[in-house]
Design a protein that fits this description.
By secondary structure, this protein is α/β, with parallel strands linked by helices. It has a domain of about 80 residues. It is about 35% helix and about 25% strand. The strands form two sheets. A six-stranded mixed β-sheet has the order 6-7-8-3-9-10, with helices on both faces. A four-stranded antiparallel β-sheet has the order 2-1-4-5, with helices on one face. The N terminus and C terminus are likely disordered.
Length: about 260
């Protein structure tokens, strides 16, 4: 086994994670470690179980079997909000923002939610300089400096995805789950998103679920391949490109060229 696959200084560790829907094993004994400071890409064909796996990691689904550890603590049964407080945040495959609010208001709300302040008082708090300054900071990190007063619903699709990443960052995560951030983006938007994810290396650890192989091979330090609920390969990008079973199951013959 490659040294890259050992738990080492694992921030997130999955052990034998299983989830069944009827007679179908969506995840079938998945064991995987995400090491602090890396970008780990999770790839696989449609129906491989990626969304189910991410839902178990984020707490939206409870596994039937197996363990999830975050910084060594067992969070298998922890609620979503508890995982966020521990430093695990998810940016969803389907953009989830407050479309009627401005960029700054969205980010201020995320900052306030992280602080534990009652959400019913977010509007007065948004006027406070410290809260606005922090919200502007996350706007800059998300590549939205200068767009703070724009209504979120009027942003281009790519900018909405950037805002969603900013909302995840506003929770001050130790690990961000990015679920298909390139979905629906044009070439220029994809290029901006790749730059944004690359910039996260200095901010947090990233687990990236993505179908865009150009983005995956550009960004990932390590790639795990999920097929029919099982990890069939977990290695550095160069090794994944040459992996016979991966080529046959997912990448296509041209990936070996």
């Amino acid at each position: 086994m490659s040294a890259a696959r050992g738990p080492g200084n694992a921030l997130l560790e999955l052990q034998g994670l299983a989830k069944h829907f009827g007679g179908v094993a969506a995840t079938d004994g998945v064991s995987l470690a995400v090491r602090a400071g890396e970008i780990l890409a999770l790839i696989g064909p449609n129906g491989a179980g990626k969304t189910t796996l991410v839902a178990q990691i984020s707490g939206l689904l409870r596994p039937d079997d197996g363990l999830i550890r975050f910084e060594g603590a067992d969070i298998t049964r922890a609620a979503v909000h508890m995982r966020v407080r521990l430093g695990l945040a998810r940016a969803f495959q389907i953009t989830s923002i407050f479309r009627g609010f401005t960029v700054l208001e969205n980010l201020a709300l995320a900052v306030q939610a992280r602080s534990g302040t009652s959400l019913s008082f977010w509007r007065p708090a948004a006027s406070e300089a410290a809260l606005q300054d922090e919200a502007r900071h996350y706007a800059r990190l998300a590549g939205l400096a200068g767009s703070e007063t724009r209504i979120a619903g009027a942003l281009a699709h790519g900018e909405q995805r950037q805002l969603e990443v900013g909302l995840a960052l506003a929770t001050r995560p130790k690990l961000v789950l990015l679920d298909e951030p390139m979905a629906g983006l044009g070439p220029e938007e994809s290029a901006r998103m790749i730059e944004l994810i690359e910039s996260l290396r200095t901010q947090t650890t990233v687990l990236l679920v993505e179908h865009d192989m150009d983005a995956v091979f550009r960004l990932a330090d390590r790639i795990a391949v999920l097929v029919r609920g099982r990890i069939i390969a977990d290695d550095v990008p160069a090794a994944i490109r040459a992996h016979t079973e991966v080529i046959r199951a997912y990448l296509g013959e041209e990936a070996a060229s």
